[in-house]
Amino acid sequence: MTHCPKAVISIQQTVLTPLKCAGEFDDVLDSNSKKGDQDSKEKIQLNFCLISSSNGLHSNGSMPLSKRVKLLHVEHLTVQTPSEATLIKDLSFEIFEKDHLLVTGPSGSGKTSLLRVIAGLWSFGNGAITVYVRPRGDLEMLHSPDVVSYQVTSTNETIGDSTGRRNFEGVIFLPQKPYMVLGTLRQQLLYPTWTEDSDNLSDDAKQSDSVPFLMRARDARCVNERSKKPTSEDLLQVLNDVSLGHLLSRFDGLDSTHEWSSVLSLGEQQRLAFGRLLLSKPTLALLDESTSALDEANEARLYQLIQAAGITYISIGHRRTLYKYHKKVLHVSTADSTSTQQNWSFKDVEEDPIYDFSKQ
């Protein structure tokens, strides 16, 4: 059994609007964290462990059951609202590599809160979550209100108390409405894993100072660079992969600057967010109705792309067609405050009667 040091993450879900700098967001989170330490006796423990490359594959490339890589372990987790109303009771499950999980349930049952707990954006309740991530380089990641990344550099390293050690690689949270940064189309794709320095900005963008979010002084909390950025050819390929190649002619190339949240439809924004996933290749992706604005054909293409990229994902969704892209399903029902019974079920997709109905 792998021992992993525990870290209490106390981040309240109060900052959901874009801030001028990742450091500014850190300051708000730190303030909320300290307040949470004073106001709450019980917190959800969020633990991180490093996993190494897998060995011992079968001759056909498949992994023996005993060698399967665990990515997520949820233990006796109870998720609550800030007013201490219970959303999910005593939840326990494990996710292994490629065990793509679909989370379903009625509105208000706590599905999004569960994903935010795993991402470190929600701490109301109690229990423990262990996330196992692979290292992808020594990098402090840019943190935003709706995209979270973690990296663990040592199994013996304590992650901390949410101060100064939040920005890691390995887990990315994708909301229903992606965050669009102020800047170029290139920057939309590189965010949040790579920030774009001024050397690659268009002359117009340099002169207009139109991208304050990414063009501030080289404060370690504002500008972080990965050692190996995708090339322009990589970005063009990803745009074509997610069926957004038409944006190049529509907006005059990768270095054009627009108010992207206004000029792109929600469906285009969701496809662009999947482009970010394909470029960053996190260990685990948390998808909160991230294809809700897409037709089934585009939805299928995006799920096939991230599967082929080796990304394990947990999705919230309501379409029955989503079952075919997942191996596990977690059903959450509305909690009954008068009952002590668990309000969830976790099973293989093949065992779910809804899955059988969808195949007919």
The strand order across the widest sheet is 6-9-10-4-11-12
Report strand %.
15-25%
Distance between the termini: 42 Å
Counting DSSP E segments of at least 2 residues, the number of strands comes to: 12
Instruction: Sketch the major β-sheet.
Output: 6 strands, mixed
Q: What number is the mean pLDDT? A: 75
Structural class: alpha/beta
Gyration radius, to the nearest Å? 20 Å
Low-confidence stretches: 6-23, 59-63, 137-168, 196-227
Fraction in helix: 25-40%
Order of helices and strands: HEEEEHEEEHHHHEHHEHEEEH
* Gross morphology: globular
Count of individual helical segments: 10
Q: Care to describe what's here?
A:
The chain is of the alpha/beta class. It has helices spanning 22-39, 111-119, 185-190, 203-208, 232-241, 247-250, 260-263, 266-280, 296-308, 353-358, and strands spanning 44-50, 70-80, 86-96, 101-104, 125-133, 171-174, 183-184, 257-258, 284-288, 312-316, 328-332, 344-348. The strands form three sheets. It has a six-stranded mixed beta sheet with strand order 6-9-10-4-11-12, covered by helices on one side. A four-stranded mixed beta sheet has the order 1-5-2-3, with helices on one face. Strands 7-8 form a two-stranded antiparallel ribbon. Helix 5 packs across helix 8 (266-280) and helix 8 packs parallel to helix 9. 42% of the residues are buried. Mean pLDDT is 75; it is low at 6-23, 59-63, 137-168 and 196-227. It comes from Solanum verrucosum.
Provide a short characterization of the protein structure:
The chain is globular and about 60 Å long.
